[in-house]
Amino acid sequence: MKASFAQLRRLLYVTACATALSGSAFAQDPAAADLLNAQQAVERADRADADHYAPDLMALARQQLEQAQRAAGDRSERKQAPVLAQRAAADADLARAQSEEAVAQAQLAQRQAEVEQLQRQLATGEGR
């Protein structure tokens, strides 16, 4: 799945705005950086079609991100927010990696099939 230039430009704009607006939040709340990192990791995994190739991990990453966001807003659970956000980011990164691996494996299998077909054509003299 390839993103168009307009989609990438919009994503960069949103990311830049979020980073600029959260700059002051980082000074007040150390968990904010972890939350932003987790959110960006989930977005990267989404762009890599991880929902298709690693749906369980993506669901877990989203769930942990939501828990981290809730914990950050709750004074009694605020200390857990960074750990939950880091777990969400790790799971989202793993889902993205698995998705990219699956795509690469599919492309490899396709190329190998093409090579085998060409080898058969050469062996039988087809295509001359």
Structure description:
The protein is an all-alpha fold. Helix 1 packs antiparallel against helix 2. It is rod-shaped. The mean pLDDT is 85.
Which stretches are low in confidence, meaning pLDDT under 50 for 5 or more residues running? none
How big is the Rg?
21 Å
Q: What is the residue-averaged pLDDT?
A: 85
Compute the separation of the termini in Å.
37 Å
SSE string, helices as H and strands as E: HHHHH
How can the largest sheet be summarized? none
What general outline do the C-alpha atoms trace?
Answer: rod-shaped
Quaternary form = single chain
Number of strands: 0
Task: Give the fraction of residues assigned to helices.
Answer: over 70%
Give the number of helices.
5
**What amount of the residues lies in strands?**
under 5%
Alpha-beta classification: mainly alpha
Could you write a compact summary of the structure shown?
Helices cover about 85% and strands about 0% of the residues. It is an all-alpha fold.
